[in-house]
Amino acid sequence: MTAVASALPMLQRRTINPWIVAVAVVIPTFMEVLDTTIANVALRYIAGGLSSPATDSEWVITSYLAANAIILPISGWLASRLGRRNYFLMSILVFTLASALCGMATSLNALIAFRVLQGLAGGGLQPSSQCILLDAFPPEKQGQAMTLFGIAALLAPVVGPTLGGYLTDHYGWRWIFYLNLPVGLLAYFICRAVVTDPDYLVEQRQAARKAHSRFDLIGLLLLCVAMVSWEILLSKGQEWDWLGDPFHRIHALAVLFVGSLIALVIRETRIANPLINFATLLNRNFRTCCLVIFCAFGVLYANTTTLPGLLQSLFGYDATTSGLVLSPAGFGAVMVLFVGGILLSRGTDARYLMGGGLLVMGVGNYWMAQLNLSISPWQVVWPRVVVIAGLSMLFAPLNVAAFASIPKELRGAAVGLLALLRNEGGSVGTSLAQTIQQRREQFHTLRLNESLDPFNPAVTEYLSNGQKLFHQQHGDWPLAGQQSIRALANVRHTQAASLAYFDVFWVCAVVGVVLLLPVFFMRRSVAAKGEHIAAE
């Protein structure tokens, strides 16, 4: 009787279709990744609704990302101790509850506290769902599994600003959090019915319990200090003038981050039961994939946050309209993801698809860098489609190459570390895009000023014609002269701002092409039937 009972879980795992498992675990992943960007467009509405300064509302994003960053690298450790299924289901429930509390928050401090709880719970969803997918599918079909995961991880930050803008404009900012309630409950009950722990993870959990190893509290504290200081540094760096900060807050955060990170790496590589297993970085392919995904998601978030700013500030689009311009890229991304998954399942080397994706991504960003202020909406849509198509082509093969030669017992640690770098790449991309745009706008303003002098015939003609035009409107000649000068200043500002936005896309294009270099040094990675070929 005992033998029959013990065989039931194995029978259940064999009979559940892996695609049902895949759809179930992708739902909460999409929900969690969506929350990294959906609130960005609603910050000023949140500040107004809660009677808080607009600059303080940025902590709504920073607190979530910092909490997320703390959990991601230790998610493998938590899954091995609590059981991956238990940890995954608990994360879904707590994330859903925290989302509801965020929607009901009556003050900014309460909202930030609930966002921390939301981020701590959400940090376990991405790596857990990715591990479940890798275990549910055989090696030759893992490219298709990563394609489905890519729909959540790649499209959610693309859809986030559009959906957030629509909900905020039509229903109010609280609905960007209430939206998670029905989705989270649905995901919880579906995952509870279909998700199980594989045998090796059950054995790993039992061995960990028998070992009675001490919890690495020092490692956790070092991780918290490193991630919190890093996220605050990225969020407030431009506002505090980076290393020019007169109060030396950026200097202190940088010292805290570097010192705690070095101490964390030293400690985790010397203790027997590390909270974060850095041994995964010894694998060449995984190490390269970490670098590529960090930079690629930096490009994605830089592009995704810069383009709406360009459309809304210089073209006069509202949040919903600018979202509609960005949305078609999502449909192209889905098609490219599925094509990539099929090619991987047929034995295509992941390196070729990664290289092709990076090249396409670079070309798309270069195309966007060549735009001007006389474009129509469709002239923005197509280069954006190319950028997201390149990232879609890159995503699935990168994940296959990253985990191809990682032992199963290290898979949880590897997935958590890769997810952390993916999210942190997005944070860095957002911060750098903002810094580049503001600094380059100052640069272009100064360069344009070099030609705007009284001895330039074009300037004198513009001011003269403008003064005559305004004089016809109200008959005040001195006021007409002032309005003419102000009109010229507005033209200068518009041109400088547009050039600064296009410079961000230019930097993204360069990053995409430069990333081709490390891909050339990766080892061959092909998903063959029943095995992975990714020699070390």
Number of helices: 23
CATH topological fold name of the largest domain: Growth Hormone, Chain: A
Percent helix? over 70%
Give average pLDDT, whole number: 85
Supply Rg. Answer: 25 Å
Structural class: mainly alpha
CATH architecture of the largest domain: Up-down Bundle
Order of helices and strands: HHHHHHHHHHHHHHHHHHHHHHHEE
Tally of domains: 4
Task: Label the overall shape.
Answer: globular
Number of strands: 2
The rounded distance between the terminal residues' Cα atoms is 45 Å
Strand order of the largest sheet: 1-2
Name of the CATH first level of the largest domain: Mainly Alpha
Q: Quick one: biggest sheet?
A: 2 strands, antiparallel
Uncertain residue segments: 1-14, 530-536
In percent terms, what proportion of residues is strand? under 5%
Description of the structure:
The protein is mainly α and 536 residues long. It folds into four domains: 1-213, Up-down Bundle (Growth Hormone, Chain: A); 218-272; 279-434 and 503-536, Growth Hormone, Chain: A, CATH 1.20.1250; 444-496, no CATH class. It is 77% helix and 1% strand. The chain contains 23 helices and two strands. It has helices at 2-15, 18-34, 43-49, 59-71, 75-82, 84-104, 108-122, 125-136, 142-170, 175-178, 180-194, 199-211, 217-236, 249-268, 284-314, 319-326, 328-345, 350-369, 378-403, 408-449, 457-474, 477-514, 516-520; strands spanning 526-528, 531-533. A two-stranded antiparallel ribbon has the order 1-2. A hairpin with a 2-residue loop joins strand 1 (526-528) and strand 2. Helix 2 packs antiparallel against helix 8 and helix 21 (457-474) crosses helix 22 (477-514). The chain is globular and about 90 Å long.
